[in-house]
Amino acid sequence: MDKLTSCILNLSSYAEKFCNLIHTFFRKKNLMMSYKYKMINNLQKLNTIRKLTKSQKKEIQSYYKGLIGKKVSLYSHEYFYSRTGIFSKRYVPTDLYYSELIAKANKANVQVVYCDKNVLDVFLPKDKVPHVYLKNMNGYFYFEGNPVTQTEAIKRCSNIGAVILKPSISSQGKGIRKLVLKEGVDEQTNQTIDQIFVKYKNDYTIEECIIQHERMAALNPTSVNTIRILTYRSDYEVLVVYAVIRIGRFGSLVDNQSAGGISVSIDKEGKLNKYAIAGATTDGVEKTDTGVVLDGYEIPSYFEAIELVKQFHTHFPYSKILGWDIAIKENGDPILLEVNTTPGLSQSALGSGFGEYTDKIIKELWVRPNTKFR
Questions:
Q1: pLDDT digits over 216-235, tens only?
Q2: Residue 198: CB partners within 8 Å, gap ≥ 6?
Q3: 275, 293 Cβ separation under 8 angstroms
Q4: Is the Cβ–Cβ distance between 135 and 217 less than 8 Å?
Q5: What is the pTM assigned to this prediction?
Q6: Which residues contact 75 (CB under 8 A, 6 or more apart)?
């Protein structure tokens, strides 16, 4: 190879690296801007907007410069301050959280596998997750773990009764529905199993209906009301950052706040706090749609649920931050419905995203590589 050819190849390699850096920069910038605009939009919908004072802005920027060496956007601080009435320099900006902290905490290229509902019973004990009757994975059918044809899958599910159908890779309760299958037809919609399979295409799961504990059902009987527990793995220690309960509205199948449900924090004694939030704007909810007063309501098997997710987190070595959705079964046993590898932070309900561990978590994560943008 002559010198000219070698020089051209080197220049080409440098140009490719430069283009990749530019592409990565704009991808990250776009993600940050999308969360900024979302926060601004939510802020404008609030009935009361509390502007940050100069001294508050200075306090926030001084705090973050001490943690990560740079200033942060203030839209999230203003939104959560306006919504809760509580000022805190420790609110975590949503754009920083999703573009940096999660990408540093969780190895990006394996997270899609971790959050696939079809593999929960692979990573975790089968008696601690719902029993799965049928999986569709990349178009392939598996009935109770064994590969089957679509024709066989339809036959096996024809008289399976009441089950839950979920997209296996989804969030915010999207696509979840209850089926009552008899003679190959859903009794609620008169759709055939074949029609349902065509609608959902690939990547879904059909699993048992969970009968929840009477105290959980009292909050709302039509949805399985779950405890969302956020954990952080610091070296070999799993920290429970916070826990909230999500409660569905009457008649709703799902409990997600994004789907209209309410969310209220749980204290360290396993009891609910006084007020719940709903969506991005509604605060001060004191009762469920069934009339249950939230303040001091005791959650069954709360400490068992905490111990369960602390054990589970050790099965996910590529993730330092995880959100766990735990239901409490009729007999009091906690059961994992879903693990979230990019969980939102319940800062409206809690006052700051990482609570007492905010400094520790941000300091530990900031020195790690960003696995999403590199």
A1: 999 999 899 999 999 999 99
A2: none
A3: no
A4: no
A5: 0.87
A6: 36, 39, 40, 43, 93
